[in-house]
Amino acid sequence: MLLLTFLLIQLKIIWIFTANDGSNFPKDMNLYVTFPPILERRESIPLGHLRPLGWQRRAESPILEDSLNMEPARFYHLYVQGNRSVVIRGMVPSLDVLWTDSYLSKTYGHLNVTVATRKQRLVDTLIMMSLEIFLEQYRHDDLYMNTIIPDEMKHETPLPSLINCGTFRDRLLEPVLWISAGDTASLLLAHSQNTLHCVLDGRKDFIIYDFSNQSPRDFDLIRQTNGDLYSRIDVDLVNAYKYKCLHNIPWYWATLREGDCLFIPAYIFHQVRAHGRTIALSIDMAPPDTRDDFIGNDCEKNPPIYVSLNKGQFQWRYEHGTRHLSKRTITIEDARAYLLLLLGRNDQLYKDIFREFFHQATYELAKQDLTLPTANDLWKQLNNDENNEEYITRSRLKSIPSNILQLLADILQKSARIHEYDKFEL
């Protein structure tokens, strides 16, 4: 009897330790977090050592806010050309009542989405799973969702009218849907694209750094193949001895709740922390050549604040669990437009940026058609400058011969239509 009791106690102890290994423990869904933080100074260690990012220096001020009724031309001149972040409150509807977990699972649970571990890493391993399985796990497991929003969900998702006309309309790249639970932190990063980030449910806190008087090289950066920059700084436990620069760099802040949006220009360093159950939409846009003026002939005078996302003409769409170009018919001028979008506000298109685009656009086709020209093959034809093999100038892109662009257009169109063909026809 004593032996049986001892075994039962041991089994209970083992079960307790197993149950608390974090895999099935509910996350903290608290939305009431103090931000910016109240700093704690200690004489013996640097300010903010082994504390989250933001504890190393007092915030300067909230990020500038502007009117919900702002005209697209004002937005372009002040914030896109001006390279400034701005908060716009009430720009999208709150979806907390409609998009419950049960509703999303029942309505869209069959769709495949991409998922990553909850603490973002320099190289995330994305996992594909059904939305239903993700919703069953994300409140307990170390997961968050970031996926190009499937077409089936676009009619219920808002697109701010501010960016759906004029210069902005043709520069819409992709809408990314984020769902997370608990305290979820991004890396410190700077995207190569302009981004409008909108919260549909929950809360997100943003840190925006100002490098107007200092270089970001002290951030210990890694450049991704798409041009994005990521810092190796651990945003949860900052080594303030190693990254002393954080004591000298001004930063600004914003807290977004349901309906709020934040515009972040390309190459502005920022870090995001989500709290509780959070659903957000980020819309990536190719930066324009800011020497050009705004073109807004198609912009309405009093448009609705937002329309459904399926009204937007995005470059990328999500189909069969993979990114594809949205257009099914791709002309020579479409191919040239893709290359010019890759330029952004720069005057040179670099080889690695083109290679990444070509890889994304032809990923499935390349696996099935082994005779497909590679990105390097195409690059050699696009770039006829023997003195510089690493980039193509803006002027050269505008004058590439039609026969070369036709080859690129044909490949991109075949890849975009891959699911319309029988596999034996490829």
Automatic annotation (TrEMBL):
Its main location: nucleus. It comes from the Eukaryota. Keywords: Iron, Metal-binding, Nucleus, Oxidoreductase, Signal. It is found in: Nucleus. Residues 138-302 form the JmjC domain. PROSITE patterns: JMJC. GO terms for cellular component: nucleus. Residues 1-22 form the signal peptide. Its cofactor is Fe(2+). Gene3D superfamilies: Cupin (2.60.120.650). InterPro entries: Cupin_8, JmjC_dom. GO terms for molecular function: metal ion binding; oxidoreductase activity. This is JmjC domain-containing protein. It comes from Rotaria sordida.
